[in-house]
């Protein structure tokens, strides 16, 4: 059309950097970060992030370079979410539970030039760099991050003077640094490696545009007002904290940082700072509902909790409500910037029985406002499955909050986007109202005697047993049925039960072929984000060997 022009007056590449700049003006003296005795205002946070960006450029960091971080939920990691992109670089947040070998693999693959390391994890980082040095001369520089609450290392680092320290680095930066904005809003802002619950980790690339849109989306779906107080129980290294570091900045909220998560710390901080919002995988919710009375504090206001990472058992959701938490169930993957769907609540559901409400809330729902579309499709025909709550298909995404692709892996990227949709590998059904309900990952579904068994459904029943703290179900080889459900169960402290009791409990509530034939009592292997590592459990079940024909016929 004549008379139209795209220029700097009407087009600026979207970037969450702008959230910080605005909050530093609108909420300049409001508290932005709390970490023990450490406190910053939004004006101070902007200045610190600009100094950080300036200092990084002095170290030779330029557009597109990768800057890594091996840090827990402390102020430095929050600041890196802005300071690194302000320097034009790409932020890589690393899982603090990685060992030196895995860390070396990710540092080599990402080609990170700098790594910020918390004093508690310095030995792991040094071990990774030692491994790297055997095959490469290009090693990342270490920036040591000490404990800001005490500014000493407590003997954890023998020679801290050997490393450039974080606060000293900031002191070298300029507060009037001219921020390096993205040249294109599709430029990478961060790199996230998948958790490896199903396969080898892959590097997922987020863009400035996607981060901007998903940050606003999580603010909306969590009903975050203008003065939120956010408790950091979601690891900031996982999907960039579900985009909440940027989202909290958009609202001028206050971040309460926690180095480690425990029931006592959660309740203490909620009470002390009047926390309004928090998040976490179902394992965090489990910590809360099973907290001993001595660790609990009464909550007289609603604390909004977003849960995701794994389908939450309905019983867990119900107990959270009893304690005064308002739970929002979101669903997504690393490839969708974390939360991508929400089980948006409908007022008419308030009249339903409590168990029914909890079952509905456990659904994954529909796409949030930042995502264009979600569907459940037949993987061959690419047609949508009927909304009959029975027909299983693969969950697929399309929109601006889907990753750019996998870092240095065009083959995997092409496969993931085949057919013009991102293929999640998750299996689900669609209800009459369009809400989707996850049934399993494609690799987790159990096929027994030709019947598909959803491990999520079986786990949900096991969770109802009063002695059960956690449960995970995988397939065990079976000479007669092909495979049968094998349950790995963790019991609550002070409780006991038997495998026969668990099996009977399930048979009383499920079709018999869906009930587990084997029950193993042990702690479940987890990623740092609370996801059960089912590939480990599958290997354990496989190592048990096949059930005999005689045993199978009896069952």
From TrEMBL:
GO terms for molecular function: ligase activity. Residues 457-531 form the AMP-binding enzyme C-terminal domain. Residues 20-407 form the AMP-dependent synthetase/ligase domain. Coiled coil: none annotated. Keywords: Fatty acid metabolism, Ligase, Lipid metabolism. SUPFAM superfamilies: Acetyl-CoA synthetase-like. GO terms for biological process: fatty acid metabolic process. Belongs to the ATP-dependent AMP-binding enzyme family. NCBIfam families: PRK08162.1 (NF006020). This is 4-coumarate--CoA ligase.
């Amino acid at each position: 059309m004549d008379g139209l022009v795209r220029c700097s007056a009407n087009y600026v590449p979207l970037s969450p950097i702008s959230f910080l700049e605005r909050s530093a003006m609108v909420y300049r003296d409001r508290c932005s970060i709390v970490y023990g005795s450490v406190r910053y205002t939004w004006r101070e946070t902007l200045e610190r992030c600009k100094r950080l960006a300036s200092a990084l450029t002095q170290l030779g960091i330029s557009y597109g370079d990768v800057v890594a971080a091996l840090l827990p939920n402390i102020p430095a990691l929050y600041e890196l979410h802005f300071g690194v992109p302000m320097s034009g670089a790409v932020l890589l947040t690393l899982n603090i539970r990685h060992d030196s070998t895995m860390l070396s693999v990710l540092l080599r693959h990402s080609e990170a030039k700098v790594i910020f390391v918390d004093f508690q994890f310095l030995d792991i980082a040094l071990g990774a760099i030692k491994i790297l040095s055997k095959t490469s001369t290009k090693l990342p520089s270490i920036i040591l991050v000490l404990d800001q609450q005490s500014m000493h290392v407590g003997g954890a680092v023998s020679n801290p003077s050997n490393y450039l320290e974080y606060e000293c680095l900031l002191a070298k930066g300029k507060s009037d640094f001219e921020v390096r904005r993205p040249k294109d809003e599709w430029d990478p802002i961060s790199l996230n490696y998948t958790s490896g619950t199903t396969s080898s980790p892959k590097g997922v690339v987020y863009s400035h545009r996607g981060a901007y849109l998903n940050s606003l989306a999580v603010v909306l779906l969590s009903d975050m007002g203008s003065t939120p107080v956010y408790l950091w129980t979601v690891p900031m290294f996982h999907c960039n904290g579900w985009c909440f570091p940027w989202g909290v900045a958009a609202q001028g909220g206050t971040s309460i940082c926690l180095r480690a998560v425990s029931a006592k710390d959660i309740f203490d901080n909620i009470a002390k700072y009047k926390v309004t919002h928090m998040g976490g995988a179902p394992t965090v919710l489990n910590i809360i509902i099973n907290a001993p009375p001595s660790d609990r504090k009464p909550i007289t206001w609603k604390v909004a909790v977003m849960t995701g990472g794994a389908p939450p058992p309905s019983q867990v959701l119900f107990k959270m409500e009893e304690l005064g938490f308002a739970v929002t169930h979101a669903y997504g993957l690393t490839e969708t910037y974390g939360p991508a769907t929400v089980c948006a609540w409908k007022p008419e559901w308030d009249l339903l029985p409590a168990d029914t409400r909890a079952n509905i809330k456990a659904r994954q729902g529909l796409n949030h406002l930042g995502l264009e579309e979600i569907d459940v499709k037949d993987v061959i025909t690419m047609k949508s499955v009927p909304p009959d709550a029975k027909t299983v298909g693969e969950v697929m995404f399309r929109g601006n909050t889907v990753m750019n692709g996998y870092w240095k892996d065009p083959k995997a990227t092409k496969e993931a986007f085949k057919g013009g949709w991102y293929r999640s590998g998750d299996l689900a059904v669609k209800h009459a109202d369009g809400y989707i309900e996850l049934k399993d990952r494609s690799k987790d579904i159990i096929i027994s005697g030709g019947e598909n068994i959803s491990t999520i459904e079986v786990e949900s029943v096991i969770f109802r047993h009063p002695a059960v703290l956690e449960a995970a179900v995988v397939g065990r080889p079976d000479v007669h049925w092909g495979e049968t459900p094998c349950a790995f169960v963790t019991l609550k402290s002070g409780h006991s039960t038997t495998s026969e009791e668990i099996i009977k409990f399930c048979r009383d509530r499920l079709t018999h072929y869906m009930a587990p034939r084997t029950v193993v009592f042990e702690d479940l292997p987890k990623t740092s984000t609370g996801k059960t590592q089912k590939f480990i459990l599958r290997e354990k079940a496989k190592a048990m060997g096949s059930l005999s024909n005689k045993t199978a016929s009896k069952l």
